[in-house]
Specification:
Oligomer: single chain
Distance between the termini: 54 Å
Mean pLDDT: 80
Shape: globular
Helix content: 10-25%
Largest sheet: 7 strands, mixed
């Protein structure tokens, strides 16, 4: 047990530490980032049409059910996304990904340098699916939790717009036929670039 002055000194140190933590929390600068999925095309070049006329399907409808978003610094552990402190609930519901680009939401994040942006798709929407896809091969859906990652270096030093490259996702979904792998495996194999 602590005696009189030792208790008082310990109490004073704890108080100073708590005040210091509170001061650091309030001085964290944030920025508002307008999140959007970029434009994409399902059109093939004339030469690709000649080489792969019908074997290469094209997406006519793609819907994602967004659950959460994470901005990762270089030092963060990404092994347990559910317990990460940088999770931003991103409950947008079901969003149709449009070839002209898709506005998602404005979010507030701490200013800083990030090495990865991830978003989770989960079956929390009315449809009960995390992904719904229609391409020339048919209609497909998934109720798996799916994480899509974008790697690179993202500097957030003020308000702005972050447009995520959608083309790699569409390229993967264009030829999806359900026989070689799951939608989850196909989408999680895609890595976008910041």
């Amino acid at each position: 047990m602590f005696k009189g002055s030792t208790k008082m000194a310990l109490g004073l140190l704890v108080s100073i530490a708590l005040i210091g933590c509170k001061a650091n929390q309030s001085s964290t600068e944030t920025a508002t980032v307008s999140m959007q999925m970029g434009t994409y095309t399902t059109a093939k070049s004339f030469w690709l049409e000649l080489l792969l006329p019908k074997a290469h399907a094209s997406v006519s409808n793609l819907k994602f059910c967004f659950k959460r978003l994470r901005f990762k610094t270089a030092l963060e552990d990404t092994a347990t996304p559910e317990t990460s402190e940088d999770n931003i609930d991103f409950n947008l519901g079901e969003v149709t990904i449009d070839s002209q680009g898709t506005y998602l939401s404005d979010i507030v994040v701490p200013k800083g340098i990030y090495k990865r942006v991830e978003f989770d798709l989960e079956p929390d929407c009315v449809s009960g699916n995390s992904v719904q896809l229609v391409n020339n091969n048919g209609g497909f859906s998934s109720s798996d939790r799916i994480t899509i990652k974008y790697d690179g270096e993202l500097v957030i030093d003020g308000d702005g717009t972050l447009t995520l490259d959608t083309q790699p996702i569409l390229d993967a979904m264009n030829s999806y036929n359900g026989s070689s792998s799951s939608i989850k495996d196909t989408l999680e194999a895609v890595t976008g670039t910041l």
